[in-house]
Amino acid sequence: MKRKIVLTAALLLAAASGLRSGTIDAPYTIGTWHGFRLSAVTYTFDDNTPDHFQTVLPMFNEFGFPVTLFAVTDWVTDWSALRAASAQGHEVASHSVTHPNFGNIGKAQQIAEIQNSKTVIETQIPDRKCVTHAYPYCVTGNDSAMRANYIAGRICSGSNESSNPANMMWLSSIVTGDQGSVRTTANFTSRMKGAVKGKQWVVWLTHCVDGSGWSPTSPSEIRGSLEYLHTRQDTFWVATFGNVARYILERKAVNVHETASGDTTITVQVTDTLDNAVFDHPVTLRRPLPEGWPFAVASQAGVPVESKVIDVDGGKSIQFDAVPDAGDVVISRRESAAVGVRANPGQPMPRSCQNYPNPFNPATTIEFSLPRSGNAELTLMDATGRTVARLADGFHEAGTHRVSLDASGLPGGVYFYRLNAGSITETKKLVLVK
Ligand SMILES: [Zn+2]
Fold first, then answer.
1. Which of 217, 298, 344, 417 is positioned for an S-S bond with 320, CB 3.0–4.6 A?
2. C-alpha 406 – ligand 1 centre gap (Å)
3. Cα 132 to Cα 111: distance, rounded to the nearest angstrom
4. If we measure between CA atoms, which residue out of 292, 304, 309 comes closest to residue 329?
5. Strand 374-382 to strand 387-392: parallel, antiparallel, or no bridges (unpaired)?
6. What pLDDT sits at residue 27?
7. Helix, strand, or coil here: 350?
8. Residue 418 in 3-state DSSP?
9. CA 415, CA 221: separation in Å to the nearest integer?
């Protein structure tokens, strides 16, 4: 008996320390969070009040930040609004069928509430899996039904969550509004600032933003927190509850193996044993460039992926995205082309912000900043990597530049924009919804 207890404790320790099950070959490293950012932030909204559609979604769309809407399926009156939100990149997830307190109902009823909400959501929104569940009143329920149906569950302990959570079914969130401790922009930003050092995940649990429901949070205070995040997108990854959970589980499971290395290309396999129908989010990897390579770009299954060349520890590395099991990644050498100014190590680097809004129709804004004057080239490519527009080219003064893109003449779908400036090449994804 004594031995069994010791083993159980060892297993718990292994789970809590987030031990990896996949293998990442040297010299590759994986970001704790997407884009090697230092913290993840998720805004969740519960109980589908009308102001989520009238106020919350337009505000988040303006910044290009996705949210998670935890819907009580029996309370939904307008599925088309939720379908539209899902198509824009927001997550529609489960908050049970009837919003019972799981402490007051039996096992069979708990299982029905956990399973049936998922079935209803996936029937109403068939092109996206429903992968997460938030417990009504933050009271947990039947664990095996949770694990059979979801990759993550949300409680509300009021603390930041670890990047290696001890229990994916009991992820912490922080209640906002007049019933919680977070009411002002300053309250929001100080908790997020505190998450950076420990590379933590901040999950906000918000109800209404007007007087229509429990614990209202002022929309202008939320907007202030979004403005804070908009100017710190290299530090904070704002993503849905489901996508952060996907990233955590993929980070633990992914295998990265280099299968070929030549003078101009390197081939890498990025795989895992997780269900590809659910785990389709890119992880971010880094690899030092071979001696003498001035630049590089990356593609997966022949399509360009988000990538940039950065200075790490005095040398150059390529940082790129890859979806596990979505085909070989090829890193291709590039010469320093027509871009003039080279940033010295330790100097601020040219960078582009994620376009906003994103997804968009038909107009969006791309912002990039140059620490010093020089040549900059911004191109728009379609999903096959073909250049469809040159958005900026030639000499640019130091500072922040904004480019408006009107895509009314282009078909809907996935596009990429690439910034070539100084010593960096950066590629980002944008989605045109038509
Ligand atoms: Zn609720």
1. 298
2. 39
3. 15
4. 304
5. antiparallel
6. 96
7. coil
8. strand
9. 33
- Measured in Å, residue 136 CA sits from the centre of ligand 1 at 5
Q: Which of 375, 371, 422, 358 is nearest to 400 (CA)?
A: 371
Strands (E), 141-189: 152-154, 174-175
How far, in Å, is the centroid of ligand 1 from the Cα of 277?
28
- Whole-number Å distance, alpha carbon 207 to ligand 1 midpoint, is 8
Question: Beta-carbon neighbour count of residue 257 at 10 Å?
Answer: 13
- Average pLDDT by consecutive 10-residue portion of the chain (434 residues)? 38 48 95 98 96 96 96 97 96 98 98 98 96 98 97 97 98 96 97 98 96 92 98 97 98 98 97 96 97 93 91 92 97 68 41 75 78 75 77 71 76 81 74 80
Number of C-beta neighbours around residue 17 at 10 A: 9
pLDDT, residue 371, reads: 66
Q: Across-strand partners of 280?
A: none
**Which run of H or E residues covers position 139?**
none
- Pull the structure tokens for residue 91: 């997550």
What's the gap in Å between 137 CA and the centre of ligand 1? 6
Q: Residue 168 is which amino acid?
A: M
Whole-model pTM: value is 0.80
| Contact in structure between 373 and 396 (CB atoms under 8 Å) | yes
DSSP secondary structure letter of residue 80: H
Measured in angstroms, how far is the CA atom of residue 224 from the centroid of ligand 1? 25
- 409 Cβ neighbours under 8 A, 6+ residues apart: none
Q: Nearest-CA neighbor of 391 among 343, 352, 340?
A: 352
Residues comprising the chain, all counted: 434
- Of the candidates 324, 219, 216, 221, the residue with the CA atom closest to the CA atom of residue 270: 324
| Centroid of ligand 1 to alpha carbon of 74 (angstroms) | 12
